[in-house]
Write a structure and sequence with these properties.
Number of helices: 9
Strand order of the largest sheet: 2-1-4-5-6-7
Bound molecules: adenosine-5'-triphosphate, magnesium ion
CATH superfamily of the largest domain: RecF/RecN/SMC, N-terminal domain
Shape: globular
CATH class of the largest domain: Mainly Alpha
Distance between the termini: 25 Å
Strand content: 15-25%
Length: 331
């Protein structure tokens, strides 16, 4: 167990909210729209440093000018997060010190299971990219900043591409950045998929009780391309990019697919198979996070329990028997 209590102020629909956690598992019940996911979101921000679904100004309760999260931890410490809407300024307060970003040593691994994750196999390539990128952000602290630098450079380059006077020279400094960060992103994604694939089939079989073979395929636009080749490919695409008004080459187009018995599982996998696969992914995420960060992850289950049959519910509970679990249900 890691969290003992939570207090929220002006956090989305919650003007004031407080809860003491159960010893191992805490269930949060509420009607649709009551604010259950928001409570998990607040915990996620305080432990990982970032929301999984929004930016701070959208989180502040409408009409208010700040939000505050306070977690009481089992070691007697507190973590507080305060956001000032007018100054657009977020502060983390841990062990009596203030930080603009949550320092790595105070981050705590979280395995988050959202209802949308159950559609991961057939959802859009962008949502699958987002899923694996969020996981990478927790695993390696530098990944988020690399990704946000890449996205900023991409945005600037795309804006320039819409200007009549655009030339390869005017794009060059952005191309250099895209090549640098793009190669880093690709390397991290590729290594992640290799790690996940080492365990996926075995863990999946334990849940699905069959002999299927499962893997993730990661198709990057820049397979075996180093920084200078990446840069060359970007410049070669200049005319096409100008005609279309955006950058067509790069890791923002990468795709992750799930492969069941050697064929891509888009619409073909059954609901049960997809659920087993997503649960297997969560188990491996927990293993990897624990190994990397040396702490037993907190497990947040948002409204997913009711979506699972008894066997899969049991698999979840028994696998996470030593983790603190906070789950929400409609009721
Ligand atoms: N900044 C905000 N200020 C006030 N209310 C907000 C804000 N952001 C979201 N809300 C409200 O919070 C509610 C959604 O909260 P949340 O997603 O946590 O609910 P939920 O209990 O998880 O719902 P569901 O069961 O449908 O998933 C909605 O009613 C939404 O209008
Ligand atoms: Mg919800």
């Amino acid at each position: 167990m890691i969290i003992k209590s939570i207090k929220l102020q002006n956090f989305r629909s919650h003007e004031l909210y407080s809860l003491k956690m159960g010893d191992k598992t805490t269930q949060i019940l509420g009607e649709n729209g009551w604010g259950k996911t928001s409570i998990l979101e607040a915990i996620y921000i305080a432990l990982t440093g970032k929301s999984f679904r929004a930016v701070d100004r959208e989180i502040v309760r409408r009409g208010a000018d700040f939000y505050r999260i306070e977690l009481g931890l089992t070691d007697g410490e507190k973590v507080a997060v305060a956001y000032d809407l007018e100054r657009q300024n977020r502060t983390f307060l841990v062990k009596c010190s203030k930080f603009g970003r949550l320092p790595k040593k105070y981050k705590y691994p979280v395995v988050l299971f959202l209802p949308d994750d159950l559609h991961l196999v057939s959802s859009s390539p962008a949502s699958r990219r987002g899923y694996f990128d969020k996981f990478l952000a927790q695993l390696s602290p530098g990944f988020s900043s690399t990704l946000s630098r890449y996205n900023k450079a991409l945005k600037q380059r795309n804006e320039l591409l819409k200007e009549a006077s655009v030339s390869p020279d005017s794009l060059f400094s952005w191309d250099v950045m895209l090549a640098k960060y793009g190669c880093e992103i690709r390397k991290a994604r590729k290594e992640l998929v290799q790690q996940l694939n080492k365990r996926l089939t075995e863990v999946y079989r334990g849940i699905a009780k069959n002999e299927d073979e499962i893997s993730i395929s990661y198709e990057s636009y820049i397979d075996d391309v180093d920084e200078s080749k990446y840069l060359k490919l970007l410049t070669l695409d200049f005319e096409r990019d100008r005609a279309l008004g955006h950058t067509n080459f790069g890791v923002h187009k990468d795709s992750f697919e799930f492969v069941f018995n050697k064929s891509v599982a888009d619409g073909s996998a059954s609901r049960g198979e997809v659920r087993s696969l997503v649960i297997a992914l969560k188990f491996i995420e927990a293993e990897m996070l624990e190994k990397e960060l040396g702490k037993k992850p907190l497990v947040l289950l948002d409204d997913v329990f009711s979506e699972l049959d008894e066997a899969r519910q049991e698999a979840l509970v028994s696998n996470f028997k030593d983790n603190q679990i906070i789950l929400t249900s409609v009721g």
